Amino acid sequence: MKKSTLFFVGMLCFCLSSPGMGWAQVAPPASALAQAAPRGKIAGVLTDSLTGKPIEFATVALLQNGTNKAMDGTVTDAQGRYAFTGIPTGEYRLSFSFIGYMTKVLPQVSVTEQKPEMEVGTVKLASSATQLKEVKVEALRPTITQEADKIVVSIEGTALAAGRTAYDVLAKSPGVFVDQDGNIQLNGRGGVTVMLDGKLTYLSASDLRTMLEGMSAENIKNIEIIANPSAKYDAEGTSGILNINLKKNELQGLNGSVYGTYNTNFKQSGYSTGGNLNIKSGKWNSFASIDQMQRVGNREGTFERVYDAKEGLIYFNQTANGKHKNQGPPTFRLGTDYSLTDKHSVGAMTSFNQNTVWVDFISDSYMGLDRQNPETFINANNFLTNRFRSSTNNVHYNGKLDTLGTTLSADLDFVKISNAGHSNFYNYYTDLTAENRPTTQDFLYTDTDNGFDIYSGKIDFAKPLNKVSKLEVGAKASRVVSDNDSRFYFNSNGLVLDPRRTNHFIYDENIYAAYINFNTKFGDKFLVQTGLRGEKTESTGESVTTKQVNDRSYFNLFPSVFVQQKVSENYQIGYNYSRRIQRPNYGNLNPFISYRDPFTYTTGNPQLRPQYTHSVGVTQTFMKDYILTLNYQYVKDVMSELPYLDVENATTIYTTGNVDDLQNVSMTALAPVKIMKNWDTNNTLTFSYNEYTMMTNVNGELNSNNNTQRVTNAQFLYMLQSSHNILLPYGFQMEVNAVGRGPAVSGLYKIEAMWWVHAGLKKSFLDKKLDLSVNVNDIFRSYRLRFNTTIGENINNFDQYLYPRNIGVTLRYKFSKGQKVEQRRTNTLDEVNRT
User: Fold this and answer.
1) Which CATH architecture has domain 143-246?
2) Does residue 32 sit in helix, strand or coil?
3) How many CA within 13 A on the CB side of residue 455?
4) Which Pfam families does its entry note (predicted)?
5) Which segments of the chain belong to CATH 2.60.40.1120?
6) CB of 91 within 8 A of CB of 110?
7) What residue ranges of the chain are covered by domains with CATH 2.40.170.20?
8) pLDDT, tens digit, 9 for 90 and up, residues 122-144
9) CATH 2.170.130.10: which residues of the chain?
10) How far apart are CA 475 and CA 335, in angstroms?
11) I need a labelling partner for 225 at 20 to 30 A (CA). Which of 380, 522, 551, 628 fits?
12) For residue 29, how many other CB atoms are within 10 A of its CB?
């Protein structure tokens, strides 16, 4: 439909739908009234409540307060903006209407001599629901939405989210895969940064998993997948950003929900319970949530190693079983926002999370020169207890400086994280070659206390330069102090400190950053965004035990360019380039030895360097729904887990080192398909080629000068994800998530193919106030991790099942008291520093 026709239809709708008006009943415009009285202006923006996109050619009527008499009328432009100028001072109402949307009236809009210009802000229109007699017309809400710079995965209200954790739903997002170490990959690439409500969670993989497993998915609104972030975002994260947005209150009055969940993996059972409360009244908008849980998990695996020693091949075969239980006091989040005026607001938020995990890991190992006739049997019983505690505190300001869209925001954050853990290791050695098979024992104990204090502050300013151009600038400073005092003891005859494996490590890091972003349009076809971010990093890592100090100071520039071309209404193409960084996490820098069994442990690497990525991409959008993305990445100094083989002692030491480089070429296709009227699907297909290159010798020592050879580890990867949303009879809603993943590589490892299927069923009762959900993960018990690496004649094979197959039942009751209408609310901050 042509724009002229839409304009005519919009004006026609205004005449017909405005209360008190007909073809002949049109009041004179405000510009003709009260010529001598002071005149003012009312302006704002109209958007779709679901997608947030502007609504063009919608009717806006200016009504005299207390009546349905229209004083003036207009229609919105392409950006959803409208304005009434030259109107007398007084009290008014605004009426918004458009075909396919519910009419909305905004009361008490004032124009005074002291404040002649009134910026209403953003008003959201909800789509209308059609109901003829008792026949309802229902549509499936899409769970995956492609926006200009990101993919948004809707979590709120889905059956798969019920009773699950934030970690569960993150692992089910399009293109996301969690590897054998708990590291998160996006579109076949590692180095992903995870954010929570725009705040970076700069934690190790294990600490991040602990935090996300303690967070109920019931409180998540959506997950944003930002594959190529602009300069406004921190440069951290070489493969993009996953941002978890928690639910925000949009209802006037009081509302909330309570829930309870039971789940089992058929070996252990867990539960979770909690609720949230939101209160919006006058200038205050406050929320509170609380969660209490017990999470459980199990694992089983077989591990095979072959060492090429001087006396011959040493065979090491191990079977292991483990379980863990994670429980804590209730976690909570509290927050409030206060509107100082209609343009300025301040707010604060605090959250606290504590849980204790108990881990049992039991392994039986056989070792010797003959695979069929081992010489030694080792029974290792490991028992670990760790208390994780984190508190996050934030204060923020958000301001609109004029009616053109100039904004200013600021944040201050303080985060404190601590781990207090200890472990007992009971090792029993049996000599299988002796006639009576004597057994000796070796008991060990570790005390591993560590903590982080994180301080950050940032400020962002945005100003439209004209109708098509916008400038954004900002600055940030952060400081992280980490103290890790890890002690290792012999415990066969009382505690005796082992100085070789004890270490006190202190890490101090400061990052100073600033950015500039410029957006503009060239005609109706091209949208261009360019940005430049500068980050100065200063860090000191000190091993108090060994007196070793590593000081670093470096400055980097991170440019980004995005070009969006609108070829036609049904075809758009975007081009992008960005440079990013991935810094080592603090645990990987700590040289402390983490013990698993007498022949396996991990250690940090104080010499670990950050990795840098150059990324080039092309994104094509067809028919506004089908997305095809092509990307090329070059990563220098790739950080990857590496096994160092102490061949003569048949010991494997795992550490994180810098591989020389990685080249990645990928193609990702996103295709929503409606199979039937009540059956929608979202499908993601990824093809990726990864090629790691490194210099290593036969013992796996990187960049060594002894017997070195250039090693290439390459693999073509495919991954297909298909998510189905089905409306069944009697109000049942089913969701199915199926994934197939081909062979892959990571550093020195080769990872075998795998597949899995998850499903959920949901039913609402009591006028949709009570939801009952049942979900099953890994229905066919196929989510199994198999990976291996071969260095010369030295072999490492691993086969693990972490018992993701489980079933959960959740009940959630929603309540509300107050006006159930969407109100204008303070804009949430785009980004805060890392926590």
Assistant:
1) Beta Complex (2.170)
2) helix
3) 6
4) CarboxypepD_reg, OMP_b-brl_3
5) 3-131
6) yes
7) 253-817
8) 888 887 644 333 333 344 544 67
9) 143-246
10) 25
11) 522
12) 15
Cβ pair 382, 361 in contact under 8 A: yes
Cβ proximity of 299 and 265 under 8 Å: no
Fold of 3-131: Immunoglobulin-like (2.60.40)
Distance separating alpha carbons of residues 335 and 392, to the nearest angstrom: 11
* Structure tokens given for 527: 């949208």
> Who contacts 466 (Cβ-Cβ below 8 Å, separation ≥6)?
none
Alpha-carbon separation of residue 309 from 377, 406, 708, 794, 797 (angstroms): 19, 69, 18, 9, 18
Return all residues near 173 (Cβ < 8 A) that are at least 6 apart: 153, 223, 225, 242
Residue 255 CA, distance from chain mean position: 26
What is the per-residue pLDDT across 740-778, written as a single tens digit (0 to 9) for each? 999 999 888 899 999 999 999 999 999 888 999 999 999
The DSSP code sequence of 630-651 is EEEEEEEEEEEEEEEEEGGGTE
Which homologous superfamily does the CATH classification assign to the domain defined by 253-817?
A: TonB-dependent receptor, beta-barrel domain (2.40.170.20)
In this predicted model, what pLDDT tens digit does every residue of 406-448 receive, in sequence order? 999 999 999 999 999 999 999 999 999 998 999 999 999 999 9
Alpha-carbon separation of residue 227 from 194, 639, 666, 713 (angstroms): 12, 19, 12, 24
| C-alpha–C-alpha distance, residues 58 and 130, integer Å | 19
> What proportion of the chain, given as a percentage, has pLDDT over 90?
45
